[in-house]
Protein backbone atom coordinates (compact mmCIF):
# COMPACT_ATOMS: atom_id res chain seq x y z
CA UNK A 1 0.00 0.00 0.00
CA UNK A 2 1.32 3.47 -0.91
CA UNK A 3 1.86 6.00 1.85
CA UNK A 4 -0.13 9.22 1.47
CA UNK A 5 3.13 11.15 1.99
CA UNK A 6 4.94 9.33 -0.81
CA UNK A 7 5.88 11.41 -3.86
CA UNK A 8 3.74 10.99 -6.95
CA UNK A 9 4.71 8.30 -9.39
CA UNK A 10 6.93 9.42 -12.28
CA UNK A 11 5.04 10.65 -15.31
CA UNK A 12 5.64 8.38 -18.29
CA UNK A 13 3.30 9.79 -20.89
CA UNK A 14 5.93 11.82 -22.75
CA UNK A 15 8.49 10.76 -25.30
CA UNK A 16 11.57 12.75 -24.24
CA UNK A 17 14.43 10.74 -22.75
CA UNK A 18 17.77 11.73 -21.24
CA UNK A 19 19.50 12.30 -24.60
CA UNK A 20 16.76 14.49 -26.06
CA UNK A 21 16.23 16.30 -22.77
CA UNK A 22 19.93 17.08 -22.41
CA UNK A 23 19.97 18.37 -25.98
CA UNK A 24 17.04 20.69 -25.27
CA UNK A 25 18.70 22.06 -22.15
CA UNK A 26 21.98 22.73 -23.96
CA UNK A 27 20.13 24.36 -26.86
CA UNK A 28 18.20 26.63 -24.48
CA UNK A 29 21.28 27.85 -22.58
CA UNK A 30 23.82 28.08 -25.40
CA UNK A 31 23.03 30.44 -28.25
CA UNK A 32 23.50 34.07 -29.14
CA UNK A 33 25.31 34.80 -25.87
CA UNK A 34 28.36 33.11 -27.34
CA UNK A 35 28.41 35.68 -30.13
CA UNK A 36 28.86 38.82 -28.04
CA UNK A 37 29.14 38.30 -24.28
CA UNK A 38 32.84 37.36 -24.11
CA UNK A 39 33.75 40.68 -25.71
CA UNK A 40 31.29 42.78 -23.68
CA UNK A 41 32.39 41.15 -20.41
CA UNK A 42 36.05 41.67 -21.27
CA UNK A 43 35.33 45.34 -21.98
CA UNK A 44 33.78 46.00 -18.55
CA UNK A 45 35.95 43.70 -16.40
CA UNK A 46 39.10 42.87 -18.37
CA UNK A 47 40.74 39.53 -17.49
CA UNK A 48 38.63 39.42 -14.31
CA UNK A 49 35.65 38.65 -16.57
CA UNK A 50 36.85 35.05 -16.17
CA UNK A 51 35.91 35.35 -12.49
CA UNK A 52 32.47 36.57 -13.55
CA UNK A 53 31.93 33.44 -15.64
CA UNK A 54 32.96 31.22 -12.73
CA UNK A 55 30.61 33.13 -10.41
CA UNK A 56 27.65 32.69 -12.76
CA UNK A 57 28.43 28.99 -13.15
CA UNK A 58 28.37 28.75 -9.36
CA UNK A 59 25.01 30.53 -9.30
CA UNK A 60 23.68 28.19 -11.98
CA UNK A 61 24.28 25.04 -9.92
CA UNK A 62 21.60 25.64 -7.22
CA UNK A 63 19.40 27.54 -9.68
CA UNK A 64 19.38 24.80 -12.32
CA UNK A 65 19.08 22.16 -9.60
CA UNK A 66 16.04 23.84 -8.07
CA UNK A 67 14.29 24.17 -11.42
CA UNK A 68 15.06 20.49 -12.08
CA UNK A 69 13.41 19.50 -8.78
CA UNK A 70 10.38 21.71 -9.45
CA UNK A 71 9.98 20.38 -12.99
CA UNK A 72 10.27 16.79 -11.80
CA UNK A 73 7.76 17.18 -8.96
CA UNK A 74 5.30 19.68 -10.44
CA UNK A 75 4.98 19.17 -14.21
CA UNK A 76 3.26 22.33 -15.43
CA UNK A 77 3.67 24.08 -18.80
CA UNK A 78 3.06 27.43 -17.08
CA UNK A 79 6.60 27.33 -15.74
CA UNK A 80 7.87 29.84 -13.21
CA UNK A 81 4.69 31.94 -13.19
CA UNK A 82 2.67 28.85 -12.22
CA UNK A 83 4.92 28.11 -9.26
CA UNK A 84 4.83 31.74 -8.20
CA UNK A 85 1.03 31.81 -8.44
CA UNK A 86 0.78 28.62 -6.40
CA UNK A 87 3.12 29.85 -3.66
CA UNK A 88 2.84 33.65 -3.64
CA UNK A 89 -0.47 34.56 -5.26
CA UNK A 90 -1.79 36.37 -8.31
CA UNK A 91 0.03 39.68 -7.91
CA UNK A 92 3.47 38.05 -7.77
CA UNK A 93 2.54 35.84 -10.74
CA UNK A 94 1.46 38.95 -12.65
CA UNK A 95 4.82 40.56 -11.92
CA UNK A 96 6.53 37.48 -13.29
CA UNK A 97 4.44 37.61 -16.45
CA UNK A 98 5.07 41.31 -16.99
CA UNK A 99 8.82 40.84 -16.48
CA UNK A 100 8.81 38.16 -19.17
CA UNK A 101 6.59 40.04 -21.59
CA UNK A 102 7.99 43.56 -21.28
CA UNK A 103 11.43 43.14 -19.68
CA UNK A 104 12.89 39.99 -21.17
CA UNK A 105 11.50 41.24 -24.49
CA UNK A 106 14.37 43.77 -24.56
CA UNK A 107 16.55 40.87 -25.67
CA UNK A 108 14.67 40.35 -28.96
CA UNK A 109 16.15 43.34 -30.85
CA UNK A 110 19.53 42.51 -29.31
CA UNK A 111 19.42 39.11 -31.00
CA UNK A 112 18.50 40.73 -34.33
CA UNK A 113 21.35 43.25 -34.11
CA UNK A 114 23.80 40.51 -33.14
CA UNK A 115 22.91 38.52 -36.24
CA UNK A 116 23.07 41.68 -38.37
CA UNK A 117 26.53 42.57 -37.04
CA UNK A 118 27.90 39.17 -38.05
CA UNK A 119 26.28 39.27 -41.48
CA UNK A 120 27.69 42.75 -42.13
CA UNK A 121 31.15 41.72 -40.93
CA UNK A 122 31.31 38.60 -43.09
CA UNK A 123 29.77 40.18 -46.20
CA UNK A 124 31.82 43.36 -45.93
CA UNK A 125 28.69 45.53 -45.66
CA UNK A 126 29.05 48.99 -44.11
CA UNK A 127 27.95 49.03 -40.46
CA UNK A 128 25.45 51.79 -41.22
CA UNK A 129 23.33 49.05 -42.82
CA UNK A 130 23.13 47.01 -39.59
CA UNK A 131 19.73 48.50 -38.53
CA UNK A 132 18.19 47.48 -41.87
CA UNK A 133 19.74 44.02 -41.65
CA UNK A 134 18.38 43.69 -38.11
CA UNK A 135 14.87 44.58 -39.30
CA UNK A 136 15.29 42.02 -42.08
CA UNK A 137 16.12 39.38 -39.46
CA UNK A 138 13.01 40.36 -37.47
CA UNK A 139 10.56 40.07 -40.38
CA UNK A 140 10.68 36.29 -41.12
CA UNK A 141 10.03 35.17 -37.51
CA UNK A 142 7.12 37.61 -37.16
CA UNK A 143 5.68 36.41 -40.48
CA UNK A 144 6.13 32.76 -39.53
CA UNK A 145 4.41 33.22 -36.17
CA UNK A 146 1.59 35.22 -37.73
CA UNK A 147 0.73 32.18 -39.87
CA UNK A 148 1.26 29.71 -37.07
CA UNK A 149 4.48 28.27 -38.54
CA UNK A 150 7.01 27.02 -35.98
CA UNK A 151 10.62 26.02 -36.40
CA UNK A 152 10.91 22.50 -35.03
CA UNK A 153 12.78 22.14 -31.77
CA UNK A 154 15.23 19.66 -33.24
CA UNK A 155 16.11 22.13 -36.01
CA UNK A 156 16.90 24.79 -33.42
CA UNK A 157 19.05 22.31 -31.55
CA UNK A 158 20.94 21.41 -34.73
CA UNK A 159 21.60 25.10 -35.35
CA UNK A 160 22.89 25.53 -31.81
CA UNK A 161 25.01 22.41 -32.15
CA UNK A 162 26.51 23.84 -35.34
CA UNK A 163 27.33 27.06 -33.51
CA UNK A 164 28.91 25.06 -30.68
CA UNK A 165 30.99 23.14 -33.21
CA UNK A 166 32.18 26.37 -34.78
CA UNK A 167 33.10 27.71 -31.33
CA UNK A 168 35.19 24.61 -30.67
CA UNK A 169 36.99 25.06 -33.99
CA UNK A 170 37.49 28.79 -33.42
CA UNK A 171 38.89 28.26 -29.92
CA UNK A 172 41.25 25.60 -31.26
CA UNK A 173 42.49 27.97 -33.98
CA UNK A 174 42.83 30.97 -31.63
CA UNK A 175 44.42 29.14 -28.69
CA UNK A 176 47.98 29.40 -30.08
CA UNK A 177 47.60 33.21 -30.09
CA UNK A 178 46.98 33.35 -26.33
CA UNK A 179 49.53 35.61 -24.64
CA UNK A 180 49.91 35.38 -20.81
CA UNK A 181 50.66 39.11 -20.69
CA UNK A 182 47.08 39.80 -21.76
CA UNK A 183 45.89 38.62 -18.34
CA UNK A 184 47.56 41.56 -16.59
CA UNK A 185 46.44 43.76 -14.98
CA UNK A 186 43.81 41.32 -13.83
CA UNK A 187 41.37 43.86 -12.31
CA UNK A 188 41.63 46.96 -14.51
CA UNK A 189 38.09 48.10 -13.64
CA UNK A 190 37.89 46.82 -10.06
CA UNK A 191 35.26 44.53 -8.59
CA UNK A 192 32.50 46.84 -9.83
CA UNK A 193 33.43 45.77 -13.35
CA UNK A 194 33.22 42.12 -12.29
CA UNK A 195 29.72 42.76 -10.93
CA UNK A 196 28.64 44.27 -14.25
CA UNK A 197 30.14 41.31 -16.12
CA UNK A 198 28.22 38.93 -13.86
CA UNK A 199 24.98 40.76 -14.71
CA UNK A 200 25.81 40.48 -18.40
CA UNK A 201 26.50 36.77 -18.19
CA UNK A 202 23.06 36.07 -16.76
CA UNK A 203 22.03 36.38 -20.44
CA UNK A 204 24.30 33.43 -21.21
CA UNK A 205 23.02 31.20 -18.42
CA UNK A 206 19.32 32.03 -18.66
CA UNK A 207 17.28 29.08 -19.86
CA UNK A 208 17.38 26.63 -16.97
CA UNK A 209 13.65 27.12 -16.49
CA UNK A 210 13.07 25.34 -19.82
CA UNK A 211 12.46 22.04 -18.03
CA UNK A 212 9.52 23.53 -16.15
CA UNK A 213 7.69 24.06 -19.45
CA UNK A 214 8.43 20.67 -21.03
CA UNK A 215 8.50 18.51 -17.90
CA UNK A 216 5.29 16.73 -18.87
CA UNK A 217 6.93 15.54 -22.09
CA UNK A 218 9.62 13.49 -20.34
CA UNK A 219 9.19 9.74 -20.06
CA UNK A 220 10.55 9.78 -16.51
CA UNK A 221 10.86 13.37 -15.23
CA UNK A 222 12.17 12.44 -11.77
CA UNK A 223 15.19 10.70 -13.31
CA UNK A 224 15.73 12.32 -16.71
CA UNK A 225 15.40 16.01 -15.80
CA UNK A 226 18.09 16.06 -13.05
CA UNK A 227 20.51 14.03 -15.20
CA UNK A 228 19.93 16.18 -18.28
CA UNK A 229 20.33 19.35 -16.22
CA UNK A 230 23.63 18.17 -14.72
CA UNK A 231 25.13 17.25 -18.10
CA UNK A 232 23.99 20.52 -19.68
CA UNK A 233 25.42 22.52 -16.77
CA UNK A 234 28.86 20.96 -17.24
CA UNK A 235 28.85 21.39 -21.03
CA UNK A 236 27.60 24.98 -21.13
CA UNK A 237 29.75 26.11 -18.22
CA UNK A 238 32.88 24.64 -19.82
CA UNK A 239 32.07 26.29 -23.18
CA UNK A 240 31.63 29.77 -21.76
CA UNK A 241 34.63 29.51 -19.43
CA UNK A 242 37.04 28.27 -22.12
CA UNK A 243 35.78 30.83 -24.62
CA UNK A 244 36.26 33.66 -22.11
CA UNK A 245 39.79 32.53 -21.25
CA UNK A 246 40.77 32.35 -24.93
CA UNK A 247 39.03 35.63 -25.82
CA UNK A 248 40.90 37.59 -23.15
CA UNK A 249 44.20 35.76 -23.73
CA UNK A 250 44.18 36.06 -27.52
CA UNK A 251 42.61 39.50 -28.06
CA UNK A 252 43.86 41.23 -24.91
CA UNK A 253 42.73 44.84 -24.57
CA UNK A 254 41.02 44.66 -27.97
CA UNK A 255 38.59 41.95 -26.81
CA UNK A 256 35.75 44.38 -26.21
CA UNK A 257 36.38 46.76 -29.10
CA UNK A 258 34.59 44.96 -31.92
CA UNK A 259 30.94 44.01 -32.37
CA UNK A 260 31.85 40.47 -33.52
CA UNK A 261 34.40 39.02 -31.07
CA UNK A 262 33.86 35.45 -32.25
CA UNK A 263 34.80 36.51 -35.77
CA UNK A 264 37.92 38.22 -34.47
CA UNK A 265 38.95 34.94 -32.85
CA UNK A 266 38.19 33.02 -36.04
CA UNK A 267 40.36 35.39 -38.07
CA UNK A 268 43.33 34.74 -35.78
CA UNK A 269 43.46 31.17 -37.05
CA UNK A 270 41.78 31.45 -40.44
CA UNK A 271 40.93 34.48 -42.55
CA UNK A 272 38.59 32.56 -44.81
CA UNK A 273 36.38 29.57 -44.13
CA UNK A 274 36.29 29.86 -40.34
CA UNK A 275 35.04 33.46 -40.36
CA UNK A 276 32.45 32.76 -43.07
CA UNK A 277 31.13 29.72 -41.21
CA UNK A 278 30.77 31.69 -37.96
CA UNK A 279 28.96 34.53 -39.71
CA UNK A 280 26.50 32.33 -41.59
CA UNK A 281 25.65 30.17 -38.60
CA UNK A 282 25.35 33.24 -36.35
CA UNK A 283 22.70 34.70 -38.67
CA UNK A 284 20.77 31.41 -38.87
CA UNK A 285 20.90 30.94 -35.09
CA UNK A 286 19.61 34.50 -34.63
CA UNK A 287 16.62 33.64 -36.84
CA UNK A 288 15.93 30.47 -34.87
CA UNK A 289 16.22 32.19 -31.50
CA UNK A 290 13.94 35.01 -32.67
CA UNK A 291 11.33 32.49 -33.81
CA UNK A 292 11.32 30.86 -30.37
CA UNK A 293 11.26 34.25 -28.63
CA UNK A 294 8.28 35.53 -30.55
CA UNK A 295 6.28 32.33 -30.20
CA UNK A 296 6.80 32.41 -26.43
CA UNK A 297 6.02 36.11 -26.04
CA UNK A 298 2.86 35.88 -28.14
CA UNK A 299 1.50 32.92 -26.18
CA UNK A 300 2.45 34.58 -22.90
CA UNK A 301 0.69 37.80 -23.90
CA UNK A 302 -2.48 35.91 -24.80
CA UNK A 303 -2.30 33.99 -21.52
CA UNK A 304 -1.88 37.21 -19.53
CA UNK A 305 -4.93 38.64 -21.30
CA UNK A 306 -6.90 35.50 -20.54
CA UNK A 307 -6.15 36.08 -16.85
CA UNK A 308 -7.11 39.76 -17.32
CA UNK A 309 -3.56 40.89 -16.61
CA UNK A 310 -3.68 42.52 -20.05
CA UNK A 311 -6.79 43.77 -21.90
CA UNK A 312 -9.00 40.80 -22.73
CA UNK A 313 -8.86 41.69 -26.45
CA UNK A 314 -5.34 40.23 -26.64
CA UNK A 315 -6.46 36.79 -25.42
CA UNK A 316 -7.42 35.50 -28.89
CA UNK A 317 -5.30 32.48 -29.75
CA UNK A 318 -4.43 31.55 -26.16
CA UNK A 319 -5.95 28.11 -26.58
CA UNK A 320 -3.81 25.13 -27.52
CA UNK A 321 -3.09 25.25 -31.24
CA UNK A 322 -4.38 28.82 -31.51
CA UNK A 323 -2.48 31.63 -33.23
CA UNK A 324 -2.20 34.65 -30.88
CA UNK A 325 -1.90 37.28 -33.62
CA UNK A 326 -3.13 40.14 -31.44
CA UNK A 327 -0.61 39.38 -28.72
CA UNK A 328 2.03 38.96 -31.44
CA UNK A 329 1.20 42.47 -32.66
CA UNK A 330 1.61 43.77 -29.12
CA UNK A 331 4.98 42.01 -28.95
CA UNK A 332 5.93 43.71 -32.20
CA UNK A 333 5.13 47.12 -30.72
CA UNK A 334 7.29 46.38 -27.65
CA UNK A 335 10.16 45.07 -29.78
CA UNK A 336 10.04 48.10 -32.10
CA UNK A 337 10.02 50.42 -29.07
CA UNK A 338 13.17 48.80 -27.73
CA UNK A 339 14.67 48.82 -31.22
CA UNK A 340 14.00 52.55 -31.53
CA UNK A 341 15.73 53.19 -28.20
CA UNK A 342 18.63 51.03 -29.37
CA UNK A 343 18.99 53.11 -32.54
CA UNK A 344 18.96 56.28 -30.43
CA UNK A 345 21.79 54.84 -28.32
CA UNK A 346 23.95 54.14 -31.36
CA UNK A 347 23.27 50.38 -31.26
CA UNK A 348 24.78 50.08 -27.78
CA UNK A 349 23.63 46.58 -26.78
CA UNK A 350 24.80 46.57 -23.16
CA UNK A 351 21.89 48.55 -21.60
CA UNK A 352 19.32 46.33 -23.28
CA UNK A 353 21.11 43.14 -22.32
CA UNK A 354 21.10 44.44 -18.74
CA UNK A 355 17.34 45.16 -18.89
CA UNK A 356 16.82 41.63 -20.19
CA UNK A 357 19.08 40.01 -17.59
CA UNK A 358 17.82 42.08 -14.65
CA UNK A 359 14.27 41.02 -15.53
CA UNK A 360 15.42 37.41 -15.67
CA UNK A 361 17.10 37.75 -12.26
CA UNK A 362 13.89 39.21 -10.80
CA UNK A 363 11.92 36.29 -12.26
CA UNK A 364 14.41 33.80 -10.90
CA UNK A 365 14.37 35.45 -7.46
CA UNK A 366 10.58 35.11 -7.18
CA UNK A 367 10.80 31.58 -8.60
CA UNK A 368 13.31 30.57 -5.94
CA UNK A 369 11.23 32.10 -3.13
CA UNK A 370 8.25 30.14 -4.48
CA UNK A 371 10.39 26.99 -4.51
CA UNK A 372 11.37 27.51 -0.86
CA UNK A 373 7.67 27.57 0.02
CA UNK A 374 6.65 24.69 -2.25
CA UNK A 375 9.41 22.14 -1.63
CA UNK A 376 9.60 20.03 1.49
CA UNK A 377 11.84 21.62 4.10
CA UNK A 378 15.40 20.46 4.64
CA UNK A 379 15.43 18.27 1.53
CA UNK A 380 18.22 18.68 -1.02
CA UNK A 381 15.93 20.59 -3.37
CA UNK A 382 14.81 22.92 -0.58
CA UNK A 383 18.41 23.72 0.41
CA UNK A 384 19.30 24.43 -3.23
CA UNK A 385 16.30 26.76 -3.45
CA UNK A 386 17.40 28.61 -0.30
CA UNK A 387 20.95 29.05 -1.63
CA UNK A 388 19.69 30.09 -5.06
CA UNK A 389 17.26 32.60 -3.50
CA UNK A 390 20.10 34.21 -1.52
CA UNK A 391 22.32 34.30 -4.61
CA UNK A 392 19.52 35.80 -6.71
CA UNK A 393 19.04 38.55 -4.12
CA UNK A 394 22.77 39.22 -4.43
CA UNK A 395 22.38 39.34 -8.20
CA UNK A 396 19.57 41.87 -7.81
CA UNK A 397 21.92 44.05 -5.79
CA UNK A 398 24.57 43.80 -8.53
CA UNK A 399 21.95 44.68 -11.15
CA UNK A 400 20.52 47.59 -9.12
CA UNK A 401 21.47 50.11 -11.77
CA UNK A 402 19.35 48.40 -14.44
CA UNK A 403 16.35 47.41 -12.31
CA UNK A 404 14.24 50.50 -13.02
CA UNK A 405 12.21 48.84 -15.83
CA UNK A 406 11.62 45.75 -13.66
CA UNK A 407 10.58 47.96 -10.73
CA UNK A 408 8.18 49.87 -12.97
CA UNK A 409 6.60 46.63 -14.19
CA UNK A 410 6.26 45.42 -10.60
CA UNK A 411 4.46 48.66 -9.70
CA UNK A 412 2.13 48.14 -12.68
CA UNK A 413 1.32 44.62 -11.47
CA UNK A 414 0.51 45.92 -7.97
CA UNK A 415 -1.58 48.72 -9.47
CA UNK A 416 -3.70 46.17 -11.35
CA UNK A 417 -4.36 44.36 -8.06
CA UNK A 418 -5.33 47.62 -6.31
CA UNK A 419 -7.71 48.62 -9.11
CA UNK A 420 -9.33 45.18 -9.11
CA UNK A 421 -9.84 45.22 -5.35
CA UNK A 422 -11.23 48.75 -5.49
CA UNK A 423 -13.71 47.71 -8.16
CA UNK A 424 -14.78 44.66 -6.15
CA UNK A 425 -15.17 46.77 -3.03
CA UNK A 426 -17.15 49.40 -4.92
CA UNK A 427 -19.39 46.71 -6.39
CA UNK A 428 -19.99 45.17 -2.97
CA UNK A 429 -20.84 48.58 -1.49
CA UNK A 430 -23.30 49.32 -4.31
CA UNK A 431 -25.04 45.98 -3.86
CA UNK A 432 -25.24 46.44 -0.10
CA UNK A 433 -26.59 50.00 -0.51
CA UNK A 434 -29.22 48.77 -2.96
CA UNK A 435 -30.38 46.15 -0.47
CA UNK A 436 -30.60 48.77 2.29
CA UNK A 437 -32.57 51.09 0.01
CA UNK A 438 -35.00 48.29 -0.85
CA UNK A 439 -35.63 47.53 2.82
CA UNK A 440 -36.11 51.17 3.79
CA UNK A 441 -38.62 51.91 0.97
CA UNK A 442 -42.18 51.67 2.50
CA UNK A 443 -43.62 50.91 -0.89
CA UNK A 444 -41.54 47.83 -1.27
CA UNK A 445 -42.70 44.62 0.31
CA UNK A 446 -43.92 41.16 -0.43
CA UNK A 447 -47.40 40.67 -1.93
CA UNK A 448 -48.55 38.81 1.18
CA UNK A 449 -47.84 41.67 3.57
CA UNK A 450 -50.95 43.86 2.78
CA UNK A 451 -53.33 40.91 3.17
CA UNK A 452 -51.77 39.97 6.48
CA UNK A 453 -52.17 43.51 7.81
CA UNK A 454 -55.89 43.72 6.77
CA UNK A 455 -56.82 40.52 8.59
CA UNK A 456 -55.54 41.75 11.95
CA UNK A 457 -58.13 43.05 14.47
- CATH architecture descriptor: Up-down Bundle
Sketch the major β-sheet.
none
CATH topology: Amino acid/polyamine transporter I
Total separate domains: 1
Subcellular location: Cell membrane
Main location: membrane
Protein name: Amino acid permease
Keywords: Cell membrane, Membrane, Transmembrane, Transmembrane helix
Brief overview, please?
By secondary structure, the chain is mostly helical. The protein has helices at 18-29, 33-45, 49-73, 80-88, 90-103, 107-123, 130-146, 153-174, 190-205, 210-214, 221-251, 261-269, 273-306, 325-344, 350-374, 380-398, 404-440, 448-454.
Provide an overview of this structure:
The protein is mainly alpha-helical and 457 residues long. It has a single domain, classed as Amino acid/polyamine transporter I. It is built from 18 helices and no strands. Helix 7 packs across helix 13, helix 7 runs antiparallel to helix 14 and helix 12 runs antiparallel to helix 13.
Write the layout of secondary structure elements.
Blueprint: H1 18-29, H2 33-45, H3 49-73, H4 80-88, H5 90-103, H6 107-123, H7 130-146, H8 153-174, H9 190-205, H10 210-214, H11 221-251, H12 261-269, H13 273-306, H14 325-344, H15 350-374, H16 380-398, H17 404-440, H18 448-454
Features:
457 residues; mainly alpha; Amino acid/polyamine transporter I; 0% strand; globular; transmembrane; membrane
Amino acid sequence: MTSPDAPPAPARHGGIGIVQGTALYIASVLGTGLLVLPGLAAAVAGPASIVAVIAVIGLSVPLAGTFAVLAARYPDPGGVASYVRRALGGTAARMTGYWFMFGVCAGAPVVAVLGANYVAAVAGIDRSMVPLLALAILVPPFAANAFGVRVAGWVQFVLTALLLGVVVVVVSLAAPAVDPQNYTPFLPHGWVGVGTAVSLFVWAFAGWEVGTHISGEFRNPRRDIPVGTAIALVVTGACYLILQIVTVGALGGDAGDGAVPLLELARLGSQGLGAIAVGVIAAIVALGVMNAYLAAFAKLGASLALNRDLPRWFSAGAESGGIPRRALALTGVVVLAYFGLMLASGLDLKPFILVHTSSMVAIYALGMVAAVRLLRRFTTGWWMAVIAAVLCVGMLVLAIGSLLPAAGLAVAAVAVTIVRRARRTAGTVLVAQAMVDDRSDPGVGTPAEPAARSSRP
